[in-house]
Amino acid sequence: MNAVTPSPNIWHWPEVYERENRAQDSTGALWRELRQRCDWTGRDVVDVGCGDGFHLAEFAASARTVIGIEPHRPLVERARERVAGAAGVDVRVAPAQRLPLADASADLVHARTAYFFGPGCEPGLAEAERVLRPGGTLAIVDLDTGCPPYGEWMRADAPQLDPNAIEAFFQRHGFDSVPVATVWRFDDRDSLEAVLGIEFSPKVARRAAREVPGLTIPVGYRVRVRRKPSGLLRA
User: Fold this and answer.
1) Of 37, 24, 35, the residue nearest 58 (C-alpha)
2) What is the reported pTM?
3) What residue ranges do the domains of the chain occupy?
4) Superfamily of chain region 8-227
5) Which of 56, 67, 109, 220 could be bridged to 144 by S-S, CB 3.0 to 4.6 A?
């Protein structure tokens, strides 16, 4: 998997995706889980598939350095504008399979719903392992395709998605995965329906809108963590 796989939602509709980012994880459940499992305070963080940099500031608030990696140049430009003037934050153009970073240069490699979707992402896993220091952590935040209602809508558009096969893949590669329940909370119905419109086919987006009467959507995630061994124990 050497080619860049497009992300039509944020690539084509970055302003709508901004509303989606603001709605996601309204209770902070994902950030709490990540912080508990891989605290990045005072450490060097890499955010793979950072998009327009929405999550960089959260890392930068306590990390030593933060590097965002994004293959789509227009999003890189938006990310650089977002973090302009922030100390210790950089954004670089590159795919997940070819990170422009030195060996053993990061303590945390984070990816949120970007690139690491199960079988086929092995080159990216290898690159993350390369740039991590011994004892460092690879943290992958995935949408849970087996968790209704959002997972059902995803599988309606992409019936080839197999939650069990995805989970088995990450288990084989040494990840500890936990489910995290979140709530997407929108300011108005126009925003909610616009986001559904960029995430799903028209038919499924209409179905989802019918099944969501208010301004919130329960969405399940999987937080997957793998730590790089620190080295051989010596007596």
Assistant:
1) 35
2) 0.94
3) 8-227
4) Vaccinia Virus protein VP39 (3.40.50.150)
5) 220
